[in-house]
Amino acid sequence: MYGSSHLIEDPVTAEATVGNEQQGRVLVAEVRSIEGIDVDGVTGWFAANIPGAVPPLSFELIAGGHSNLTFRVADGGSHAWVLRRPPLGQVLATAHDMGREHRVISALGPTDVPVAPTFGLCTDESVNGAPFYVMGFVEGRVIRDISAARELSLEQRRAAGESIIDVLSAIHAVDVDAVGLGDLGRREGYIERQLRRWYGQFQKSKTRELPAVDATYEHLLGHIPAQGPATIVHGDYRLDNCLLDEDGCIAAVLDWEICTLGDPLADVGLLQVYWAEPDQAASALVPAPTALEGFPTRKDLLERYAEASGRDLSDIDYYVAFGMWKLACIIEGVYARYVGGAMGSGSSQTQSDMFGAQVAILAEAAREAALRIG
């Protein structure tokens, strides 16, 4: 997520993303032992709840998921879907709510926000050991790293940057009451609640003492900007949580698991954290795809958002510092799941060490950024 030196590749809730034909997947087809999938139970549920599903089903675990697990599901005909479920093992109670994510995507379907269509939600844990939901498989590409970004033309890179802001503005313009999401969360005191929530999650999942996280929490808590009207807040809005179409525009926004109502500038600040520029040595994604020629600059993104939304961005530095700090808290949870073995047998010690180091680096970057705002 945001730019300091030495940040490590692929942090966070980088959820497995649907429709990514360019990205490697672990193929798991027509077997009876798949981590995260009870083949018989899920097949039976599909037969009863998804019209047109033709068994047998095959499953692909989409590579890159460090929080909720995401599978491509194909049937014996020509149909494909995406199944999302919580991670294995250690799970924080509020961080992996399948019903909430399903509800948000379903509500946004009729709006200007591009999302995958939803097909069903299963809350009966006897089916698959945990709740899950099913959505449509959307064709597109995910730009997670430099190699993927190099496959885009200059025009596609520009379009991706402009589209990501236009879609973010559309998200923040949704009438939450009109789409039935008015009770998704409290509308007042968003930043204070977020600070307390993520600090609480950090306390529950931390594996060691990190004084920079504690100090930054206190500083941010004491310097909260005045909050404007609440909107939908995605909570992890970034380029690789979106699918791009052939023109480089966003075909679908993914990973709504921590979406709520609150201050829209939190999304803007976090996007700035992820969006590296050509003269930067590193960002939260290393090597960062947006550092290539053709992508708009951070300033370009802010100007386009300000024009589209009409919002005052004079306090954006606070939201950037908050974004760095929040990511440190989230990644510590990812690291704890690796340490606890919850990411499955395919995870490695190297991946675990990378996430552990990234938490410390992000926490220090957040502390330094927070001190600059007051």
Any chance you could write out the topology, listing elements then pairs?
Blueprint: E1 25-28, H1 39-49, E2 58-62, E3 69-74, E4 80-85, H2 98-108, E5 118-122, H3 125-128, E6 132-136, H4 146-150, H5 154-173, H6 190-205, H7 211-221, E7 231-233, E8 242-244, E9 250-253, E10 260-262, H8 265-274, H9 298-309, H10 316-339, H11 349-371
Antiparallel strand pairs: 1-2, 2-3, 3-4, 4-6, 5-6, 7-10, 8-9
What can you see in these coordinates?
By secondary structure, the protein is α+β, with helices and mostly antiparallel strands. It folds into 2 domains: 25-136, Phosphorylase Kinase, domain 1 (2-Layer Sandwich); 146-371, Aminoglycoside phosphotransferase (APH), C-terminal lobe (Aminoglycoside 3'-phosphotransferase, Chain: A, domain 2, Alpha-Beta Complex), CATH 3.90.1200. The protein is 39% helix and 12% strand. The chain has 11 helices and 10 strands. It has helices spanning 39-49, 98-108, 125-128, 146-150, 154-173, 190-205, 211-221, 265-274, 298-309, 316-339, 349-371, and strands at residues 25-28, 58-62, 69-74, 80-85, 118-122, 132-136, 231-233, 242-244, 250-253, 260-262. The strands form 3 sheets. A 6-stranded antiparallel sheet has the order 1-2-3-4-6-5. A two-stranded antiparallel sheet has the order 7-10. Strand 8 (242-244) and strand 9 (250-253) form a beta hairpin. Helix 10 runs antiparallel to helix 11. The model is unreliable at 1-31 (pLDDT under 50).
